[in-house]
Amino acid sequence: MTVKFLLIFLLSYLSGSIPFGYLFSKFKGVDITKMGSGNIGATNISRVFGIKWAILIGLLDVLKGAVPVSIAMQSGYVGWHLFLICISPIMGNIFSLWLNFKGGKGVSTTVGVLSVLLGWQLSLVWLLVWIALLYFINLMSLTNLIIILFTPYLLYSLYDLKLAVLGFLMIIIIWYTHRKNIIRLISGQEPSLFDRQ
């Protein structure tokens, strides 16, 4: 591995580690980790501060994944090199260096990674499907758990088996970070997106 690759890999993790939701809540004078579900992601931000702030935080978290992967692809990285750079900001989001290796659930940053890998046309279709699912289900967690299941096929159809493995790893990561949501979904206690705390 070259120094350039290792530098991009490290910066990808550090980019993913930036806890925008936490920093925003501190700016507002509160600690988001002690409010709502305690998560620093856009869904909890929407319940505590409202949807407009959630959109801002969500977009910033998307960029944490999109920018490093864009740099990696423009640098010509493919295969396992691209795989590692794709997973790095997601791990940074979930295990943030700045929050004692705690963080969000990785969804928005995963979306950022996928938006670059899929290209804008397929990403737009994927977004529309996600919006339709969210509209009918009205549960952010369940929508995310369903939509991520399509990623291995999409990545395999566009790239190769290495990126299909990335898709399966994304499923494992997202389902793992949503394990408490899954328990609440099974028990019927999962709050809808617009339930304010």
Mind explaining what this structure looks like?
- It is globular, with a radius of gyration of 16 Å.
- It starts with a helix and ends in a 10-residue tail after the last helix.
- The protein has helices at residues 3-17, 20-27, 42-49, 51-74, 79-94, 107-137, 140-147, 151-158, 161-177, 179-187.
- It contains ten helices and no strands.
- It has one domain (3-187).
- The longest helix has 31 residues, at 107-137.
- By secondary structure, it is an all-alpha fold.
Brief description of this entry?
The chain is mainly alpha-helical and 197 residues long. Helix 5 crosses helix 6, helix 5 runs parallel beside helix 9 and helix 8 runs antiparallel to helix 9.
Helix content: over 70%
Distance between the termini: 47 Å
The unreliable regions are none
Strand content: under 5%
Coarse structural class: mainly alpha
What is the N-to-C order of secondary-structure elements (H for helix, E for strand)? HHHHHHHHHH
- Supply the number of structural domains: 1
Describe the largest sheet: none
Mean pLDDT: 92
Number of helices: 10
Backbone shape: globular
**What assembly state would you assign to the polypeptide chains in this entry?**
single chain
Radius of gyration: 16 Å
